[in-house]
Design a protein that fits this description.
heterodimer; A: mainly alpha; globular; B: alpha+beta; six-stranded mixed β-sheet; five-stranded antiparallel β-sheet
Chain lengths: ~230, ~300
Amino acid sequence: MPLLGLLTGGDWSPSELSAADWHAIATSLLGGATSVVLITLAGTPLALYLARTPGRLSALAETLVLIPMLMPTLALGILLVSIYGPAAPLGTTFARFGIILTNTPAAFVLASVYAALPTYIIAARAAFLQVPPGFEDIALTLGDSPRRAFFRVTLPLAQRGLSAALALCWVRAIGEFGIVLILAYFPAGMPVQLWTDVQDLGIQAVFPLVAVFLAASLPLPLWLGLRGRRHLT
Amino acid sequence: MPLSVDLRLHTPIALHTVFEIRGFTALLGRSGAGKTSLLKALAGLLPATGTPSASLPPQARSTGYLPQNAALFPHLNALENTAYALRGPDRFTKAQSLLDALGLGELAMHHVTTLSGGEAQRIALARALARRVELMLLDEPCAALDATSRDATLHWLINTLDARNIPALAATHDPAIAGLADWLVLLADRHIIQQGTPREVFNHPACVAAAELLGFENIWPEDGNFHAIRAADVEIAETGLPATVISARAHGAGLRVECAAPHPMIILAKAGEYQPGAVIHLRFPAGALKTIKAS
């Protein structure tokens, strides 16, 4: 139903996107993709650890992962600025190495990672929990190293759940508004640009960018979802 | 050539087992006795100390392992499962040859979810045999199978391993399966309580726990020792040990009679009238009654 709004509402006559819009699209796509790559690399081993390792340390790690997901995003953004901001200890440490973590592309990636990492880890953990650990044991007795068994057995069997985790991660990374608004107002991604366009031009004028925003965020989850269904049949 | 095992486990169950594997060896024990843990330790999947190969990781051992449910990889078909342990471009050809040699060639392209329990066990054995194995471990190989396919699958497994001269250790809680083995090992109270040929072990249970594992329904103390006899071996006669009928229930073509003599006794009797409270006389045929020395 919400997609019908694209057809029935809005003013499509100024169909050209502004330079700021194009910049926002590039920021969102590049920043979102970078975040998803970082999240996949860091989050997959952590999700596997949480799925496979019972105990207090694992429970503590899970709690730490969950906290950012449960926090209001604007509040989280403000807290992140207080940590990574130019005057904050962590911010100044990074700045010494030339990495500024407010209002830079790096800040955009950082905000997206904080927005999407918990979602990815929780969903990926659930995907790994679906795979009985006995299959990896069998692979070991068939001559595989633990690493090879993971890639040949666990990963393919968790693929459907991991696809869903990746889809959710992409949507969260590219669609995040609250944290990005505080931590990376510049360079504006699509959500922040849409918000400023709405403020400046009115809601009727932002439909072209809304269409691009949807086109950028929906195909990957839809493709991963359909791929998962094909594997089921 | 017997394979000697002297293995000590600490987790998830503390066990110290010393026994031999000769041909198709059955490891008989109750559920929870540690049979699966012992098999996993032999496969290198659980930490243990001792022999054989306790320090080697599972992938470095020449040990095949068949878990209770076959555990075929559900994302691969039967041929791909069989080829799993093989390497090189001709691995599928080799796997197909192996399946053909085992009479399973027709199942090659079947998805594992379409296989019956017996077929899955056979493909799982083929998958394990694709690798050079010097010992095969089978965990309750027929527990998940129905009665009709159980015997056929078990005999197929034993014959296939025999034909390749591969010793095997099969964990089971079923004395009937244990009776088919070349060598029988009894596990109870966290150690091996008896081992020998099935004939020796069934004829001479070493202790009460062994008799219980072997399926003796009637075990009672007498004259400082224990006596054991199977329910099917007890005869009802004109004279003999008097016993009072407690209950009688249909058992196949006959009856299962519970009585007190005065110790509890179970008898599998042919058809007849056994009213509760009636006194019958029990006779124990020579050879059927086992005497177990109290330890």
